[in-house]
Amino acid sequence: MSGDLNHLRGKFAIAGVATFGCGEAPGYTDMELLAQAARLAVADAGLTMKDIDGLCTASASSAMWSMPVVEYLGIRPRFVDATMIGGSSFIAHLMPAMQALESGQCDAVLVAYGSAQRTSTLSRKEIGKARLLMDPQPYEHPYQPMLPMSAYALAASRHMHDFGTTRRQLAQVAVSARQWARKNPDAFMRDPLTVDDVLNARMVSDPLTVRDACLVTDGGGAYVLVRADRARDLPQPPVYVLGQGTAVWNRQISSMADLTVTAATQSGRDAYAMAGMGPKDINVAELYDAFTINTLLFLEDLGFCAKGEAGAFVEDGHIAPGGSLPVNTNGGGLSWGHPGMYGIFAAIEGVRQLRGNAGDSQVAGAQTAIVHGNGGTLSSQSTAILGTAAAL
Amino acid sequence: MVNQEGGVQAIYQAALDQGRFEIQRCNDCGDAVFFPRELCPGCGSGDLSWFRPSGKGTVYAVTTVRRKPEAGGDYNVSLIDLEENVRLMSRIENAAPEEVKIGMAVKARVTVNEGHGLLVFHAMEGAAQ
């Protein structure tokens, strides 16, 4: 079997992070949000844009997105990766970025994303129509699933059938996320939310209501990855990459072998193997919650509970503030915000926690975080384990 | 060598347009294959042939997409496992969306509308739970 990449453990660190325009940024374009986040992340790292010689980015609409980003930022990167596997892309970018830094191809990689999907003049309905033409799924689209939501609803239906998971347990995921969001002034939705509020919200694709679904917000996010020795000379406390793994198993939900087992089983296994760690070593979990079922699936597939037991786990309050496993400490896609592809924001929140500057939502003494991205319709999964110097 | 009938997607749809539901089987490993492919996803073989499956299947996962009555009302979307051990997306046409349950026995039908065939399913007699 090929190596576990353990030789890369702790050799690279996130030295800068930033978000910009999260929530609503009327009048901004995707690129402007990306550029502002990039500018702020580079400054946070104590670097200038001239120091950036590697770029990772992805867009849900532009097929050649890396080129306009290079042009806009005015950089001349020696390394460019625009792998697009949906919302997990920006966690997946860690591995090629580490390999490029390891080989000496470049010295500082900027990973950046922006989306104006909430306030864009191009409506989501128009984007949806364009996708049907540009990216046809001839064996699913004729049945008009409301994608992506119906795909996750199908997975939820099977989880409920196989394990007795209830709508109340799904709702508790949204309620826990909201409880975290109420501690975070940057979260988009901070009003109190109860299980009954979720259950009584507008049903969209059974068993999921609109409150089982992530928000639709604008936002840009960026981070800067450098070699660990350099990170130690930069102003922020380095957040080391201890483990990383990415797995892509399918595109269509109908091609999934088992709707209750995702490729996170593979990405998580690889990330843990590289880190030499297991679920018990994790202090904070940032799990891409596009829908409430996602959190349950990833808690199971990343080993925090046995298959089928995540519903009871969240119902017992384990992932809410004060619980045994802090999950989605910014409020997650469900309550903090969801600018189209959320993965980079999960990573940024993990860094925020490990730097110890997460304000009221700070998890005391957090030294390790698992940040997990999901893409497509449970199609791609990418997992990273981050840690402070104490976790090396 | 290029097939003069086109790729497998076109061949699949052409059969549906004539009212026939056909899927592939790998002549090397014996697996049934759906959706139609140019190679077997199980073993990589390019030697696949078409056959007519029994059409019998079981609902594996189910959702009801909510839609305003004036736009046509709520509708079912299901994943169905065929007897031949392949999974596909379709809808159950002869039952109200809320009556479609996981485990329900269903049978394939092809509807042809203005020359365009579509695979749908009907709940089998006495299958409603």
From TrEMBL, chain A:
State the Gene3D superfamilies in the record: 3.40.47.10
CDD domains registered for this protein in UniProt: SCP-x_thiolase
- The chain positions of domain Thiolase C-terminal read 245-388
Fetch the InterPro entries from UniProt.
Thiolase, Thiolase-like, Thiolase_C_2
Q: Which SUPFAM superfamilies match?
A: Thiolase-like
Source organism's superkingdom? Bacteria
The record's Pfam families line, in alphabetical order, gives: Thiolase_C_1 (PF22691)
The record ties this protein, via PANTHER family, to:
ACETYL-COA C-ACETYLTRANSFERASE, NON-SPECIFIC LIPID-TRANSFER PROTEIN-LIKE 2
- Quote the protein name from its UniProt record: Thiolase
UniProtKB/TrEMBL annotation, chain B:
Q: Give the ChsH2 C-terminal OB-fold domain ranges.
A: 52-110
Protein name, as recorded = DNA-binding protein
- Organism of origin is Alloalcanivorax balearicus MACL04
Q: Which residues, if any, are the signal sequence?
A: none
Superkingdom of this protein's organism: Bacteria
The root-end lineage is: Bacteria, Pseudomonadati, Pseudomonadota, Gammaproteobacteria, Oceanospirillales
Offer one Pfam family short name for this entry: OB_ChsH2_C
Task: Describe the location of the ChsH2 rubredoxin-like zinc ribbon domain by residue ranges.
Answer: 14-48
